[in-house]
Amino acid sequence: MSHQTPTAAQAAGPARPRVLSGIQATADSFHFGNYLGALRQWVDLQEDYQPFFFIADLHALTVPQDPKALRERFYRCAAQLIAMGIDPDRSALFVQSHVPEHTQLTWVLECITGFGEARRMTQFKDKSAKEGESAASVGLFAYPILQAADILLYRPKYVPVGEDQRQHLELTRDLAQRFNHRYKKTFPLPEPYILKSTGRITDLQNPTAKMSKTNSSASGIVEMLDEPKVSAKKIRSAVTDSQAQVRYDDEGQPGISNLLTIYSALTGTKVADLEQQYAGKGYGDFKGDLAEVVVDFVTPFRDRTNELLDDRAELDGVLRRGAEQAREVASRTLAEVYDRVGLVRPTL
Length: 348
Ligand code: AQP
Known about the structure:
Largest sheet: 3 strands, parallel
Order of helices and strands: HEHEHHEHHHHEHEHHHHH
Strand content: 5-15%
Bound molecules: adenosine-5'-tetraphosphate
């Protein structure tokens, strides 16, 4: 890896609008939902925007974590992001807890968030429903407000995420507007960057549900770091529909439609062209070919990730430089916010 750390002026410069997004350090591997729904767009957006991407380790704490596993996942996240094309020379790649301004701004935003407003967040409802609301942590409840702080600190134009994050983005915009109205215009309103085609990748075994690390069964989720032949098998045994036609119909044939989306996203072939290519052929041919596409895609990704994981000091260095760039921007925003709400800073 070569390093040309951007100068402070480049990192903070107004030349290009910013993009920002994060991913939780809660799994040993990213899955196809994460990658196709959000992460691939991170890579593309590096070209034209000033990118800030982070590993959301504080968000990970909203549900119980084994400290040793969390530490390992932190490195796995960093290695996977670089392996998929996040270039630390172009993007500030950092860790949420390395930039204390995230939690500092959270408190200010929590104080302008209505309790009922936070309660309406469907992710909290879904996640807390499992164990019962009284077993859920306050951290899980407040998670979307930390997320709003993550975003607003950097005043990004776009936030590339999957469809499941739309409601949290709306809350972020509401809080930004409220702050601007109550104090002084401070935050431009960030826009969600959600692709219609891949914004919701679904479970291979239950194709009306989101592919998800917590809710999908092992056979319903394609893990990017799995043995390629395991992923191929999962694709070949994915649930398909009764019409025996390779045709996109989100409602009538959700299983094959999800596979068409994955095939199209990985190869760049339009869904209509794939439908034509497989006209008159069975699901077996289609799934067999897609299994090969998946193997070709994950094999180099996995090899590169493992190579990067062999040099933890290098990863530490990348993340340290990323945090320095992030803090330059975040500390300026936080200072403005503190000033606007009337907090007096200590004199030197
Ligand atoms: N199935 C999905 N389709 C499209 N986008 C998805 N994302 C997640 N699942 C899908 C997007 O991935 C980014 C990172 O999400 P995260 O930090 O919430 O990661 P995760 O916790 O690993 O995602 P899961 O599997 O969705 O977790 P649980 O099961 O805990 O809810 C986000 O941009 C997200 O939209």
